Amino acid sequence: MPELSVVVPVHNERDNILPLLGEIAAALRGLTDFEIIYVDDLSRDDTLAVLNAAKQQFPELRVLRHVSQSGQSTAVRNGVKAARGAWIATLDGDGQNDPADIPKLLQTRTVADPAVKLFAGWRVNRRDSAVKRFSSKFANGVRSRLLHDATPDTGCGIKLFERAVFLELPYFDHMHRYLPALVQRAGYQVQSVPVNHRPRTQGQSKYGIGNRLWVGINDLRGVGWLIKRSKRTAVEEL
C-alpha cells in the first residue's frame, strides 16, 4: 500500500501531462511509496489517451475518468475516495504547482503538531495574469474576513492532508477552495507553507472572474452557515 497518493484533476491538459508526471516521479521516487491518481473531468482533447499511454512509463499512475463533466472539487474528491494512501497530496494539472514542493510539505508534517491535518501551499510570488491575481487577492481578503480561517492562500492547488479527515468534510461544488475553513470546522489545525509558483506554459486557464470571483463570494454564505451550525464534542466509551 502506498504511503502517499498524489491526486491531480485535469480537463483539457494533454500537453502538461507528461512533463508534470516526470516531475512528480522525480520528486518522490526513492523518498516514499506513492501512487499518482489523475482524474480526467471528461476532457475534449486527447488527455485521456495521453494518460493511458503514460502508464507504460509511470507504473505508479492510475487513471480515473468522469462520465460527465463535474468540476475540480468533484474530481479531487473522487480521486481521494479511490486513493490507497493515508495521506493525500494534490496538484493542479496545469503545471503551475511545483511537484518539488511535495517533499517540503512532507518534511513540514514530520515536525508539526499532530493536530495539523492540512498543510496548505502558499504562493508567495504569484505567476499569473493581473486579472487572476486581482480576483484571487480580492476573494482571499473577503473570505479571510468572513471565515477567519487564518490562511493567506486557500486557492493554491498544492496541498497535503490526511485522507480520513478529508472524507469527514461536507462535500459541495467548489469545496476545494474552502478546505482550510472546513478542516478547522472539523476540529483540526491548518498550517500554510510557502511554495513555488510557475507561469502556465501550455493550454488555457479554466478560470476567470466569472467562475472564480463571483461564484466564490456566493459560496462564502454557505460555508459560513456550515461553520455556525457546527457542533463538536469529545466522546467517552464507558
TrEMBL record:
<keyword id="KW-0808">Transferase</keyword>
<keyword id="KW-0448">Lipopolysaccharide biosynthesis</keyword>
<dbReference type="InterPro" id="IPR001173">
    <property type="entry name" value="Glyco_trans_2-like"/>
</dbReference>
<dbReference type="InterPro" id="IPR029044">
    <property type="entry name" value="Nucleotide-diphossugar_trans"/>
</dbReference>
<dbReference type="GO" id="GO:0099621">
    <property type="term" value="F:undecaprenyl-phosphate 4-deoxy-4-formamido-L-arabinose transferase activity"/>
</dbReference>
<dbReference type="InterPro" id="IPR050256">
    <property type="entry name" value="Glycosyltransferase_2"/>
</dbReference>
<keyword id="KW-0812">Transmembrane</keyword>
<keyword id="KW-0472">Membrane</keyword>
<dbReference type="Pfam" id="PF00535">
    <property type="entry name" value="Glycos_transf_2"/>
</dbReference>
<keyword id="KW-0328">Glycosyltransferase</keyword>
<dbReference type="GO" id="GO:0009103">
    <property type="term" value="P:lipopolysaccharide biosynthetic process"/>
</dbReference>
<dbReference type="GO" id="GO:0005886">
    <property type="term" value="C:plasma membrane"/>
</dbReference>
<protein>
    <submittedName>
        <fullName>Glycosyltransferase</fullName>
    </submittedName>
</protein>
<keyword id="KW-1003">Cell membrane</keyword>
<keyword id="KW-1133">Transmembrane helix</keyword>
<feature type="domain" description="Glycosyltransferase 2-like">
    <location>
        <begin position="5"/>
        <end position="166"/>
    </location>
</feature>
